[in-house]
TrEMBL record:
Keywords: ATP-binding, Biotin, Ligase, Nucleotide-binding. The keyword Nucleotide-binding applies. Residues 1-449 form the Biotin carboxylation domain. This is Acetyl/propionyl/methylcrotonyl-CoA carboxylase subunit alpha. Pfam families: Biotin_carb_C, Biotin_carb_N, Biotin_lipoyl, CPSase_L_D2. Residues 120-322 form the ATP-grasp domain. Residues 545-619 form the Lipoyl-binding domain. The keyword Nucleotide-binding applies. Its cofactor is biotin.
Amino acid sequence: MIQKLLIANRGEIACRIIRTAREMGIATVAVYSDADARALHVRQADEAVHIGPSPAAESYLLGEKIIAAAQQTGAEAIHPGYGFLSENAGFAQAVIDAGLIWVGPKPSSIEAMGLKDAAKKLMRAAGVPVTPGYEGEDQSVERLKQEADAIGYPVLIKAVAGGGGKGMRKVDAAADFEAMLESCRREAKASFSNDEVLLEKWITSPRHIEVQVFGDSHGNVVHLFERDCSLQRRHQKVIEEAPAPGMDDTTREDICAAAVRAAKAVDYEGAGTIEFIADASEGLRADRIFFMEMNTRLQVEHPVTEEITGVDLVEWQLRVASGEPIPLSQEDLFIDGHAIEARLYAEDPAGGFLPSTGALDHFDLGVEGRIETGVEEGDRISPFYDPMVAKLVVWGETRGDAIDQLAGIAENVEIWPVKTNAAFIANCLRDEDFEQANLDTGFIETKLDDLVSSDEADDDIWQSAADFIALAETEDYEDLPIGLRLNAPGVLSATLTHKGETRTVSAARAGTESFATGFVDPARAVVFADGQSFVFERQSRGSGAAAAGDGAILAPMPGKVIAVDVAEGDTVTAGQRLMVLEAMKMEHALTAPFDGTVTELAASEGGQVQVEAVLAVVEPKEE
């Protein structure tokens, strides 16, 4: 058995591997970049080695540095996690050549499945159903156009070396083919240094079904049933579940047997996933489920398989890499209940899903379910890596039980000031079509407007903010300081500003329960409700001046100020542009909330700003 393991990854998956290694008595070595010097996976590992600057290309993607770290610390094996170098056959071979154990499939297996066109030919020869299409060597525009016409529109153009949703174009009509081909090739060349493509028949009601497989060095291959990963946004998975809803026993047996044949065709060892596209227009049927690709690594969504089978897939990886056979036979594996996972991302759905970075000043994911994360309160979400904050995982006796549990966890997420997609997740889960398993990969795109919650605070949220301030300033509502009011009982009130709107709100009386949670500090009140955070700037009590107050212009996202159109003392009108903020190559104009005067200006052209920073204050025009 391996005694010391280096984990060539970061964040959530590194912490996940460390947990199992510790349970098995295996010492762990973390690697880290500048940005991750104080990261959770570094704190949890037994040892840690610095491997370079923050950009992944200068640290986590440098195989020679990772191998050197293993040799330096005496680690016998390297686990790549997922992403980064996990499916890099050259790195896998370099690890083996250095005399270390590679916790993953053979380099030849990775290479065989690395190019989509070659993989499809291999799968067709192995008797695995493949989507109708073209994977030929003739890459001329004329030949590709001819094949697309023969397949019939709509057709999908895919980069043979593609992944992560890149290098894919749907073509609805023959007249659009050449332009879409050029666009796809350009992206493929930039992303993968390979502009070759293949063609596939576009499936009109597609569901993304994948099968977990596992092989060992003794010739054994088993499957651990299927997962449904149909809920995606821009080809990135958001919610995954196991087993696939609507999958009958006969279809399951057929698709899982095909996955085992696929793994055996490449002499597979370790954890892998065979991904299929299903035409679900008439339900899930074996003759309408086609091979897409193989992921030669552990998947992000592996916890749902673990939850329904009771298996620790990381433990299996480490045992098989040490030369042991798979711990269980196919006959010993069965499905128990239903599991669902949601990916909690640091992004702002109401702001076009712009990434949200910065410090996690408040971070509470509750105690329910299985939480897989690589951060704690006080850590930072870095702009250098994937914005996934955590995976929220639940198990239930039925699918309905699991949905209710996971929606509740998402609705109770408390994270600030970083924004997340928690409310978006809850809305997906609560959607009637999702509950009834009316799914396909276009689910989110079709319903997007309904799934994104407004970031405007309603009256109940305003009330909660005032109540929390009252609670912070008095231990008991009955002991609230009494303000002077004519012809009415005295109550404590708070003057608050949210997104440019200012209100004075009276706190509720004793015995009133809030539906929300939150906290206050001298500058603000933060309310958490239904998976969102709402920030209210406070006016100091006893002061007649507004805090960053009535017309505070706050940065809606971290970014760079690329234009400032006003100066202090300028008179402005409602809707007038004050400045422009750029983030992720998108421009966002900030405007005056009402007629007034610019009394403060903290932003300057070229300056970098953080989310919620006060950039300017507009004092309203006197009536």
